[in-house]
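Batch job 17 of 40 flagged for manual review because the log was empty.
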Amino acid sequence: MMRAWILPMLLVLSGSAVAAEQIATGSPGTGAALLLAFLALAGVNSPLVFPRSIGAREAERRSAVDGRPVVLRRPGCKYCIRLRVRLGGSARQLHWVDIWRDPEGAAQVRAANDGNETVPTVVVAGRPHTDPDVGRVRDRLSSSA
């Protein structure tokens, strides 16, 4: 779990250093804007934005039991972040797989996308959908509840 916080913490520390330098050189507005940008990047890359990632095999097992979709994602992917934000609180009901941490998940994404690691790839009832419409994902969640 601690590894998941390394990038966000580095972004916060880097942003603080850059902001402090800007403030010291007489540009407090620029320093504040840069600090906010670094904090936003840290937030987006933190475990707070995405639910805890599980392995692809475990996600498939859980999905077979509860019927909820599996989302194969990659850290820092703007399309994955967009999906997460648009789903709001219901995103916690999905099974999230970080393909950079799970080779099986990465292989699944490549198999579904002609060898490319195109994410988000949402697996619903065993069928992959690349960058699906958020409404369809919500519909699937409501039908599995």
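Reviewer: the log was empty due to a logging misconfiguration, but the result itself is present. Helices lie at 6-24, 28-44, 56-66, 78-87, 103-112, 134-144. Unflagging and moving on to job 18.
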